[in-house]
Amino acid sequence: MQTIISNINKSFENRVRLGVMSILMVNDWVDFSEFKETLNVTDGNLASHITALEKEKYIQVRKAFIGKKPNTSFQATAEGKQAFQEHLNALEALIKGTL
What we know:
By secondary structure, the protein is α+β, with helices and mostly antiparallel strands. It contains four helices and three strands, in the order H-E-H-H-E-E-H. It has one domain (10-93): Arc Repressor Mutant, subunit A, CATH 1.10.10.
């Protein structure tokens, strides 16, 4: 028997990861500093959550130089977008009580 919360993805239960994926669902590429400012988190906190999402293959990383400054940006993968959408659907079903 399936429980009402079985489709909720633990990878997205933290507010920072939820924020990262929400931002990436509506933007192609987002750089580290933009995440840090938008989510109001420290470098280390953001880096640990990004690493966790990257390990799950939900986001991909692009490292480049803009002039002489390094720039790291992120994009949601197709797998990440699908997993996040399924998570949102599960939350919606939980709220509506339709499971």
